[in-house]
Design a protein that fits this description.
The complex is a heterodimer of chains A (112) and B (112). Chain A contains no helices and 11 strands. Chain A is an all-beta fold. In chain A, the strands form 2 sheets. In chain A, strands 2, 4, 5, 9, 10 and 11 form a 6-stranded mixed sheet that branches. Chain A is globular and about 40 Å long. Chain B is mostly beta strands and 112 residues long. In chain B, 0% of the residues lie in helices and 50% in strands. Chain B is built from no helices and 11 strands. Chain B is globular and about 35 Å long. Chain B starts with a strand and ends with a strand. The mean pLDDT of chain B is 93. Chains A and B meet through strand 5 and strand 10 of A and strand 4, strand 5 and strand 10 of B.
Chain lengths: 112, 112
Amino acid sequence: RKEVEQDPGPFNVPEGATVAFNCTYSNSASQSFFWYRQDCRKEPKLLMSVYSSGNEDGRFTAQLNRASQYISLLIRDSKLSDSATYLCVVNLGSTGRRALTFGSGTRLQVQP
Amino acid sequence: NAGVTQTPKFRILKIGQSMTLQCAQDMNHNYMYWYRQDPGMGLKLIYYSVGAGITDKGEVPNGYNVSRSTTEDFPLRLELAAPSQTSVYFCASSFGRRETQYFGPGTRLLVL
């Protein structure tokens, strides 16, 4: 089983739609969680951290479910500019590696 | 602040050649990382460093070497380039282990 797993998509949605992505992780001792956004041929950039109680940033809502070992990202009122690949990132601190583990990403295409 | 800078942006190597990918950050971050990203895949950690003089292997270190003589610089050395090393290489830095990682713009490497 992959340490961090995402549906690669693509998710094709019309402008204004609500879309949600899930990401599962294998290590129950994982300590911190993030969503990064990566535009085509560009570097990843932090979209938002994911907190245990869930958190919201404008149109974006992130949730963490430790019992089921997944995190989610909800995008409301999708914009054309939201088209990108969304990377789920988990800190698997208990493995001894000190860096983050990236999922392969979920591609979102918002259509006019 | 320039953030994380990488040079070169693009390079073509012949099999067996060597090169150094440069990475520098001006944010006084302790942690620095090298990742590679193959087409349609997630980022794989090659090496990381928790401070000047300290480096450690990530998930895919074979064929690469690193050094960290200063806080600012973290070069990645490719010895005896192979076609399997064709990829996009991203350097990143963070203040602490669980903190946000900031990425450079990447170096596209083609080995023929």
